[in-house]
């Protein structure tokens, strides 16, 4: 048998979110060598982060190891690290991991590094109002939410108790609505009877947004139904309300009534996303433009203008006002993989990416969700069943699906929450990183897996 002499086409994929992972899987039979680089060793199912934060699911159920997912795919090499820059002329990415910097050369590059939380120029808000973009965020919020009830139980001063039992969620999109609904259910259904000195049902859950409707992209009909269900849960909804200040003990807002102060020890941010720093670096390196959120303005086929060897997918790309949802990432990742296979086969490339909208869904409470699929708009129990089926379908791994279903039964049929454990380390991790530095900074890592902690 003749030996292969020419090296195979090298595909580097940045990010193992929906876009990057599905691109890699779509190339499993292609004659390519894939290097998949991700800042964590797991693939994160972001749509269920709020359930980790509210004690329904464990973090492992929504974050299976990348190596386990791709263990049967021989043409992929998984590497840990953050891509810090791209040398376009040399066709290589520069990567940093704890204690080591390295580079990887490519023939084709797919960049799907996801999105970060946007505080609209007020990044200092993050210290007191964590976002919902990572496992770290979800675990910190879990510690803060359950810890708030514990600390409220210790205080005798009614004002101090009220401050600890007031939860503010900023952002009335799907994440914010789901988060507010679950905290309300926790307070009214799961925790009553477990505390001697407080009644969790007296907790206030306040949902804030600058727009004039919850779930505004779902349309007026479903937005109205979602608002009605939130009110039934006891959630206070403040619309056309802008956040102007956030500190340790509360939040300042401009409302139609004027400037107000909400005393609260537990705030969370679910309003706005922005492309990661890599997006602007790549744009500068290639001379392409970005939109206001930092997303790269790509060609119709998801490549960068003047650079057909570089694809941007998912939240990294700006194309036709597509939303930053999982289906856009999945489909654009698959599209990039298809274009690579066509190019290697000598077939026509440059095909326009066409997005097929499979609809939008959001849960409000147990057995109640809203779903918009084309011209079909449903809510209530039927919507919840549709939500359940779709999320089980896209949750990676048979084991994760089984354990998720078991935990959903515990939480939705019973009155318990399977995952209430939270540690001080999780609660104060953000402060520790701020004080001692990012563990991914090489200067702080000396030797061994625990160095620099």
Automatic annotation (TrEMBL):
The chain crosses the membrane at residues 376-396. It is an enzyme of class 1 (oxidoreductase). InterPro entries: FAD/NAD-bd_sf, FAD/NAD-binding_dom, NDH-2. Its EC number is 1.6.5.9. Pfam families: Pyr_redox_2. The keyword Membrane applies. GO terms for molecular function: NADH dehydrogenase (quinone) (non-electrogenic) activity. Keywords: FAD, Flavoprotein, Membrane, NAD, Oxidoreductase, Transmembrane, Transmembrane helix. The keyword Membrane applies. It catalyses: a quinone + NADH + H(+) = a quinol + NAD(+). Residues 10-333 form the FAD/NAD(P)-binding domain. PANTHER family: EXTERNAL NADH-UBIQUINONE OXIDOREDUCTASE 1, MITOCHONDRIAL-RELATED, NADH DEHYDROGENASE. Belongs to the NADH dehydrogenase family. This is NADH:ubiquinone reductase (non-electrogenic). It comes from Couchioplanes caeruleus subsp. caeruleus. The lineage of its organism: Bacteria, Bacillati, Actinomycetota, Actinomycetes, Micromonosporales.
């Amino acid at each position: 048998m003749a030996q292969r002499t020419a090296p195979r086409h090298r595909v580097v994929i940045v990010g193992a979110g929906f876009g990057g992972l599905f691109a890699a899987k779509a190339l499993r039979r292609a004659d390519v060598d894939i290097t998949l680089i991700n800042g964590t060793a797991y693939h994160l199912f972001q749509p269920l982060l709020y359930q980790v934060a509210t004690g329904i699911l464990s973090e492992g159920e929504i974050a299976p190891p990348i190596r386990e997912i791709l263990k049967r795919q021989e043409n992929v090499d998984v590497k840990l690290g953050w891509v810090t820059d791209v040398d376009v002329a040399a066709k290589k990415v520069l990567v940093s991991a704890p204690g080591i910097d390295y580079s990887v050369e490519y023939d084709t590059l797919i960049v799907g590094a996801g999105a970060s939380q946007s505080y609209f120029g007020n990044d200092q808000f993050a210290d007191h109002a964590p976002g919902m973009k990572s496992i770290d965020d979800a675990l910190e919020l879990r510690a803060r939410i359950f810890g708030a009830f514990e600390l409220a139980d210790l205080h005798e001063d009614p004002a101090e108790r009220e401050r600890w039992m007031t939860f503010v969620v900023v952002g009335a999109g799907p994440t914010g609505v789901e988060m507010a609904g679950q905290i309300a259910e926790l307070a009214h259904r799961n925790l009553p009877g477990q505390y001697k000195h407080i009644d969790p049902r007296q907790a206030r859950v306040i949902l804030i947004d600058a727009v004039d409707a919850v779930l505004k992209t779902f349309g007026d009909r479903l937005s109205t139904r979602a608002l009605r269900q939130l009110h039934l849960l006891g959630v206070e909804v403040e619309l056309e309300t802008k956040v102007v200040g956030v500190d340790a003990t509360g939040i300042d807002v401009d409302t139609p009534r004027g400037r107000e102060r909400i005393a609260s020890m537990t705030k969370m941010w679910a309003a706005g996303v922005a492309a990661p720093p890599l997006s602007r670096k790549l744009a500068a390196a290639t001379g392409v433009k970005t939109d206001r959120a930092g997303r790269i303005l790509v060609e119709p086929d998801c490549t960068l203008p003047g650079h057909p060897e570089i694809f941007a997918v998912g939240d990294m790309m700006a194309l036709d006002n597509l939303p930053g949802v999982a289906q856009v990432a999945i489909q654009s990742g698959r599209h990039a993989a298809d274009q690579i296979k066509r190019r290697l086969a000598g077939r026509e490339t440059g095909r326009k990416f066409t997005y097929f909208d499979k609809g939008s869904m959001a849960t409000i409470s147990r057995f109640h969700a809203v779903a918009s699929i084309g011209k079909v708009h449903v809510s209530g129990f039927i919507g919840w069943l549709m939500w359940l089926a779709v999320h089980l379908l896209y949750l990676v791994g048979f084991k994760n699906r089984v354990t998720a279903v078991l935990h959903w039964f515990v939480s939705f049929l019973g009155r318990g929450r399977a995952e209430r454990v939270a540690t001080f380390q999780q609660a104060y991790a953000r402060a520790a990183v701020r004080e001692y530095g990012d563990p991914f900074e090489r200067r702080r890592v000396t030797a061994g897996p625990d160095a620099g902690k």
